[in-house]
Amino acid sequence: EIVDESNLNDNTLTLCRSTLDGPFGVSSAIRDITSEPESLQADDVSITTMTLSNIAEFAADNETVRDNFLESVDQLFAVNDSVTLASQEMSNSSNVLQETLNNFIDAVNLTEFDSKVIFPQENFFISAEEVPAADFAGQNLSLAFDANQGFRNAVLTTAVSELADDILSIEIPPAMDLDMTIRITFSSFASSSSFQTRRNFSNFDNFSVGSVFASLRLSGQPNFEDPFTFSFPKSADAQNGSNVTCVFWDIALDEGYGGWSPNGCNLNSDEDEDTAKCRCNHLTSFAILFDVSPGNYNDSTNTLVLNVITYIGVGVSIMALIITIVTYLLTKKLCSSPVGKILINMCFAFLALLVSFTISGNVTSPPELCKFFSALLHYLLLVYFFWTAAEARYLHYKLVEVFNNSWIIRNYTLISMPICWIIPLGIVGISLSGYQYYSSEEINFCR
Q1: In this structure, are residues 69 and 124 in contact, taking their beta carbons and an 8 Å threshold?
Q2: pTM score, whole prediction
């Protein structure tokens, strides 16, 4: 098939031409393309990921191709999150990259490495080892590393390590089938860029990743008596967050694009400020998420100060609006002019908005009441906006179209009343068709 090169970008064209040199040329081309991850676009990530998947098994057997392969994967893990997300939505590249890495390490012949191989990179760490099940079961597999320097100097050990401040460990339960050899594949990832859900699928809206990622796979897997226990070093943000959840990356979610799932995982301990422990009854890629929603902000001192400032400001505004309304209503000249009538309507709308805002701030249940106040705030904001626009239009009439004395100008306030009070009602009515978006999933605040 003849391909029009004018339709290909420079990186894709380079990859196409490199195929003439076989896996050596392809791996070198991908390494050069990914050498500056900050400049990569979504289509670059997609095409390089798919190409890497085609040379993964060859890379396992050839040192030169392997070095290029690992360096390229490392750089892809450093790509900007927004670019990775766009590539994921375009071609499922994140899951393809993880599968490619698994295929690579599975294809490595461990007999050439004395039954154990370790590939530490800056953004990920992966190892494979063949051991008797009797030697592996009941052990503590620990990865000691410095989060500020990546995984290049990480140390993997079967004992609790004191070599670094950040220690990712897995407690292996006793095995029931000990008379067998198992292949252990362990990997860890520093970035969440390859574990992103698509925009139209988000089962953890208000959560953020609070740890590195751990993945453990066993081939010839024996039966274990108890769940595996993962100990994750918390990120700085997670230490200040709340509501930690243990999750794993379920590739079956979202039509094969993947998503976070808590199934089979439970938070075992979160008492330590720096570490969270998760117990899971299956093996895949694991991490911890922490809640970043406004409803879980627990700094009571700052919350009290902010509440006091808010209520004082709202109270002063309400008093000023009441004084303005009373003054205009008691002054015939002011309340009879079109500008005065517009201002009175604006003040009424704004006053109702502030009162509703004050009340809604203390409403958390029932959900229907919370949604009512959310819709009411939406309506009153629109009314105020419409009256502001009406005032601006009237000033344009008086200052620019000075001699315009049409029926519209003489009856401007009468015409503006239904427009400014009724049309916003219709807009809110349409919005109520998706009324569930007026409140959070866990009803603890009104949106």
Answers
A1: no
A2: 0.62
